[in-house]
Amino acid sequence: MKTIVHKADSRGFANHGWLQANHSFSFASYRDANKDNFGALRVLNDDVIAPKMGFGTHPHDNMEIITIPLKGELKHRDSMHNSWESIHPGEVQVMSAGTGIQHSEINGSQDEHLGLFQIWVIPDTRNVEPRYDQKSFKEADRKNKLQTLVTSMENEVDGALKIHQDAKISRIDLGAGQSFQYDLKSDNHGVYVMVVYGKVTIENEVLETRDAIGVSETGAFSAKAKEDSSLLFIEVPMRF
C-alpha cells in the first residue's frame, strides 16, 4: 500500500477578498511540483465565496468538472443554457467541458457565503460534446454507508451522475466509533480521501477536518471515526 498525507494547513491558499480558496493541488498562482495531481484527479478546490460575488464567464475544455456545494446557493450559467441554474447543498453538478464551453458561477445569495468543493478530473476521451447534469442526493442515504455520487459513463450505478473517466466519487457520514472498509476498483486505481469534517483514522493516520490522504497500490483500506465525521472519496486511475 502507498499513502500520501496532505494536512489541511499544507494546502495552497489564496485570499482574493471576495474569494477564500484552498487548493489541494497546483492551481492558478499556487504551484507545488509534488502536488500537481493524484492520478487523474487534477484539482480539488475548497472555496468560500462572498455574497453576490463569483466567477465571470470563462472557458474550459477537455476536463470533467464536478461541483459539490456545502453551504449557500450556487448559481451556474453556461453556453449550453441561457438561464441560471441553482445548485444547493445535497446536490452535485457535473460538466463535461469536451470541445469547449463558456460558463459563469456566482453566489446566488444576497447575504450568505457560499462554500463548495470543485473537482477536476482528466477525461479518458477528448473532444466530446459538452454536457451538463445535476442531481440531488439524500443525506440519510450516506449514514454509515457509501453513497455513490459520480461514476464513469460505462458504469451502471443507479442514480449516479456520469463523467468521461473510469472514476468514482462518493461520500459517507460515519458516526463516532463506526468503521468502514473501502474496496478499490482495480490495481491501477487510487483513492483521494478528504475529511469534510470530523476526525478519523485511516491506515494509522489520524486525520481531522479538511485533512486528506491518497491511498493506492492496494485492494482495500479502512477508516474509523473517532467522532462524527464525513468523508469524500475520489477514486481515479493512477495511470491514464
From TrEMBL:
Its cofactor is Fe cation. Binds 1 Fe cation per subunit. Keywords: Iron, Metal-binding. Residues 150-236 form the Quercetin 2,3-dioxygenase C-terminal cupin domain. Fe cation binds at H58, H60, H103, E105. Gene3D superfamilies: Jelly Rolls. It comes from the Bacteria. The keyword Flavoprotein does not apply. Pfam families: Pirin, Pirin_C_2. GO terms for molecular function: metal ion binding. Residues 11-121 form the Pirin N-terminal domain. Belongs to the pirin family. This is Pirin family protein. It comes from Pseudotamlana haliotis. The lineage of its organism: Bacteria, Pseudomonadati, Bacteroidota, Flavobacteriia, Flavobacteriales.
